[in-house]
Amino acid sequence: MENDAYDRIGDEPPNYEETSFSGGTTSNGNGTGNGEHRAVRPSVVSAFGHDTLDRVPNIDFYRNAGSVSGNRAVRPSLQELHDVFQKNGRISVTNTVEDREGSDGTPSDDVESVIPLDNKDGTVRFGWIKGVLVRCMLNIWGVMLFIRLSWVFGQAGWGLGIVVIALSCVVTTVTGLSMSAICTNGVVRGGGAYYLISRSLGPEFGGSIGLIFAFANAVAVAMYVVGFAETVVDLLKENNAIMIDELNDIRIIGCISVVLLLGISVAGMEWEAKAQIGLLIILLVAIVNVFVGTGIPASTDKKSKGFFNYDAKIFMENLPPDFRDGETFFSVFAIFFPAATGILAGANISGDLKDPQDALPKGTLLAILITGVTYLGVALCVSATVVRDATGNINDTIATGMDMFCNGTNTAACEQGWNFSSCDYNNTKMEHSLQHNKITRHTHTVMTMVSGFGPLITAGTFSATLSSALASLVSAPKVFQALCKDNIYTALKFFAKGHGKNNEPIRGYVLTFIIAVAFIIIADLNVIAPIISNFFLASYALINFSCFHASYAKSPGWRPAYRYYNMWLSLFGAVLCCGVMFVINWWAALLTYAIEIFLYVYVTVKKPNVNWGSSTQAVTFVSAVNNALSLTGVEDHVKNFRPQCMVLTGAPKNRPALLDLAHCFTKNYGLCLTCEVFVGPRTETLTDVNAGMEKNQMWLNKKKRKAFYAAVACDSFRQGTENLILCVITCCHSLTADTAGVQSYVGVLHDAFDFEYGTVVLRMNQGLDISHIIKAQEEMEREAQEQKDLEKEELAEENKGKSIFRKSRNLSTQGLTSRVTTPQSPQVVVVNERLVSTSTQFQRKQGKGTIDVWWMFDDGGLTLLLPYILTTRKKFKDCKMRIFIAGQPGRVEQDRHEMKSLLEKFRIKYADIHVIDDITQNPNSNSWKMFEDMIEPFRLHEGSKSTTLAEALRKDNPWKISDAELDTFEEKTNLQVRLNELLQENSRAANLIIVSMPIARLGSVSDHLYMAWLDILTKNLPPTMLIRGNHKSVLTFYS
């Protein structure tokens, strides 16, 4: 296969040409141009001044296949970079991937897009106000505001009533904080609570709670519609306009209402949003109407019903609780809390938001604040103007001049000139008071009385019920569609299909409509309502637990942009939600848990083929590592012996009988390692080795064989088997090492590149090897112990034996003392002290400083991820990351902006970004002289000699650096020397330096020249790490 960007001419570097990375019109995932011109960083040839296949960091390398906002780019693989000159012909490196497997081509597949998509196709995307704030406020206010709020404060008093509202707000606020952390830890797509939980805790939790949550929203449609229908029936009853009877009228009105709501929803999200705005305006007018009404002087009729405008005595009389009819604080709280279960209304349509990461935290938390203040304000205003009990009889006034002593529970009304002493709540049901019946029928009487214009309260009640029903009618199909798209329940795949430009779940709407009508026919949801509340609370509990679990796992991928959360607060929120579930209804809580456990077991058994990088996987990995490490400190015991088999099966499927026999030994409790040796030249077998690793391991997993697969490539079977058995550890070498040592060391790096392993090299000026110091200390300790033993023997036998023996012993003691006390030269002492200090440098807490990351080439993100992980450790928590990148003169700000955008998507915190635009300058003479002195002993200098003599020198010293090689790689050599100058200039005071490791062209760059590059690049610097990932992404901005 050919790639026109590379021109292979002998051992010359490739001729790099500009590709689509340099700009131009990108194509969407379907391979058609979308007209979007992407101004990206220039090619590496313009940034570094020489031709190279390496690519600079770019966001397109981290996209998903199937992206709509931009094509996923493919960086050159490590193997392609390493052996580009070894191929027979040219290699092809595709620039983009147009793989849309598993995608339906809708905008929702563009899961990484955090900017508004091009709406030329009519796709509707909402901002944080219309998409989140408005929906959450409408859902939270609901019917509770006009129907049950006054009763709650009549029972609990405004003292405990504030506690009821505050406790509800604590639950929702903590959940909102946890949700904000999760939804800012990567791009959020449609699915609401299901998406957040499934991507955090895995498909088992997400699949179980997703089905429950979608069902709860569907039933909630019926609950809100029945509430609306009951209010309409009450009006019909007051006007003697009942059609059949109350129960059937509720069914008829409810079914008609849900049909109309379904029509609005199916018409599209834009019409639904307009309807919500209209309902919000009505609801806001009704709320203002309540506040205005409390300031209008009360009429005689209103006073007879207990409304007296603002009065401090009424306010204080309503302070203590007055629980009646067997109610308690917890039962009252259970009645109120369903009002707070609308905080996920915005998250449920996350797939229809312009920027979910920004909109969800802002809109949800602000909605909780506004609705909480509104509930509190309305309740306190009513508590300051309405007495608990009133007769509604305008004749119950105290006549002028009548001497009556005011006391008891009606003192405030008595002082206002009204005698409500005839009220006996144990025997008489008051039609007008704060203590009015809690059930939905007729319970808006108090709010209607307090308001300035009563019919507005009825309109507000209609608006609250219909808006909540409409939000639930939209939420249920959206969540259900996201669940079905993931194919966790294969039988439900039918409902995954979307229709129209906005990918509307029409099939989900129909299913939600059927469920809603089925419960509307029941026409009495007082038993179902607690179950719905518990379903919502179960979702809240898992959202909080997801945030805690992800924080506890300490995965490098957990980097939420929203910082105002705490893992222990999230855990507290999860426990609190579980507690509230039992407070509301204990049997409904048990039923919810039973359904969730059943679905969890079902999904676990089915094992859906998904991998979302959940925190459950992260904790499993940490536990496995800890368990393995704990075993290293335990001596094997015969009672715990288990077979550990290394089975030379070749490819596991080639010798199944051998594998089956070994599996009988190990079963699920022992270690089984299936091994394959590829015999032949490594350049020919590497492709088979790399291709077979994942394929064979997947085969073992599919066959339910608890075994690992390992493979090596060697010239002989025996050597390969030895490599499988032995673990070889190599130490670092420098250019001053012997020739064999340099070749061996560089050979290890070549092996790592060949097998596509990420490689890290640490350079410290003082060195790393302290074995000679440890050996000397052990020798001194041993001789000192001998000295003590001799002295003890001498003291014990001081008066025994002959003097000749004592003399011999004294001579021996003197010799030993001289050996132990032999002083070292001051220079050696200083060097050893520095070396010992350096060897423990990373055991100490690092002071305030910087970790400088010179991210020159995109290697999959390992060069950036490793220093980030360091900053999360206690020893480096005071160190800030500075990012250095290569740029081109004239576009420094553009390069900095692009890198800033990329780091923000990765949620990587940094102190500063430096764009180096003079990296292509030649190094100064002093630096170049230092490099020439370094390589002088290893140069061939064949250019100044005759052809015959030069050929002889090359034949006798093939490992030496030739003049031709220096000329060929002059630009890359200049780059390493120049980089060292820049490192000296910018990072001399850094605590740690991270630099992208240059790649040695296999068979083209000599071992000594490559070592010289690494040596000069890291010379005279603080501790420096050279990192080269395996060119497979280790960073992602997906959740």
UniProtKB/TrEMBL annotation:
Keywords: Cell membrane, Chloride, Coiled coil, Glycoprotein, Ion transport, Membrane, Phosphoprotein, Potassium, Potassium transport, Sodium, Sodium transport, Symport, Transmembrane, Transmembrane helix, Transport. The chain crosses the membrane at residues 132-153, 159-188, 209-229, 249-267, 279-298, 329-351, 363-387, 456-476, 509-529, 535-553, 565-588. Residues 17-29 have a biased composition (Low complexity). Residues 131-645 form the Amino acid permease/ SLC12A domain. One of its GO terms (molecular function) is sodium:potassium:chloride symporter activity. It catalyses: K(+)(out) + 2 chloride(out) + Na(+)(out) = K(+)(in) + 2 chloride(in) + Na(+)(in). Its main location: membrane. GO terms for cellular component: apical plasma membrane. It is found in: Cell membrane. Residues 1-40, 92-112 are annotated as: Disordered. InterPro entries: AA-permease/SLC12A_dom, AA_permease_N, SLC12_C, SLC12A1/SLC12A2, SLC12A_fam. It holds the Pfam family AA_permease_N. GO terms for biological process: cell volume homeostasis; chloride ion homeostasis; potassium ion homeostasis; potassium ion import across plasma membrane; sodium ion homeostasis. It is a multi-pass membrane protein. Residues 655-725, 737-1039 form the SLC12A transporter C-terminal domain. It comes from the Eukaryota. Residues 39-101 form the Amino acid permease N-terminal domain. Residues 1-11 have a biased composition (Basic and acidic residues). Residues 773-801 form a coiled coil. Belongs to the SLC12A transporter family. This is Solute carrier family 12 member 1. It comes from Oncorhynchus tshawytscha.
